[in-house]
Amino acid sequence: MTVEEESPPGTEVGRVSASDPDEDGTDNAAVGFAIVDGDDDGVFDIVQGGEAGEDLREGVIVVRGRLDREKAEEYLLTVGRTFKWKNIYIV
Predict the structure, then answer these.
(1) From CA 41, how far away is CA 13, in angstroms rounded?
(2) Residue 30, class by beta-carbon neighbours within 10 Å (0-12 exposed, 13-18 middle, 19+ buried)?
(3) 50-55 contact pairs (CB < 8 A, 24+)
(4) What is the pLDDT of residue 21?
(5) Rounded CA gap, 11 and 52, in Å?
(6) Residue 2 and residue 53: Cα distance in Å, rounded?
(7) In sequence order, what are the residues at sequence separation of 6 or more whose Cβ sits closer than 8 angstroms to the Cβ of residue 26?
(8) Alpha-helix runs per DSSP H in 1-91
(9) Taking every pair of C-alpha atoms in the chain, what is the biggest distance, in angstroms?
(10) How far apart are alpha carbons 48 and 78 in whole angstroms?
């Protein structure tokens, strides 16, 4: 995935998806995502289900802060799947 330097916040970088064998619509089937490594500068975020929330099994990686090539030429993000257990989301 690539993104231009100075891209404004909200710019889509890429998408991730996951599935769960539990019945759709149940708490056990809820799929979420988190950036667990590689974003020390806090310049990325994951929007659950995209801007319109159309697919809750998908996450959209977006720019959240200023991308500065002089500070970091590239980022290697590690994205984890979260799951809900007793109203706690665990990566």
Answers:
(1) 16
(2) middle
(3) 50/15, 55/17
(4) 72
(5) 15
(6) 23
(7) none
(8) none
(9) 47
(10) 16
Q: Is 8 exposed, middle or buried (0-12, 13-18, 19+ CB in 10 A)?
A: exposed
Cβ 57 vs Cβ 38: under 8 Å: no
Per-residue pLDDT 10s for the chain (91 aa) are 889 888 999 999 999 988 767 666 666 666 788 899 999 999 999 988 755 555 667 889 999 999 988 888 899 999 988 766 555 556 5
Residue 12 half-sphere exposure toward CB, CA atoms < 13 A: 10
Q: What is the pLDDT, as a whole number, of residue 42?
A: 93
Residues in the chain: 91
Token pair 């404004």 is found at 8
What is the rounded distance in angstroms from the CA atom of residue 49 to the CA atom of residue 60?
A: 7
pTM for the predicted model, two decimal places: 0.78
List domains and CATH numbers for the chain.
12-90 (2.60.40.60)
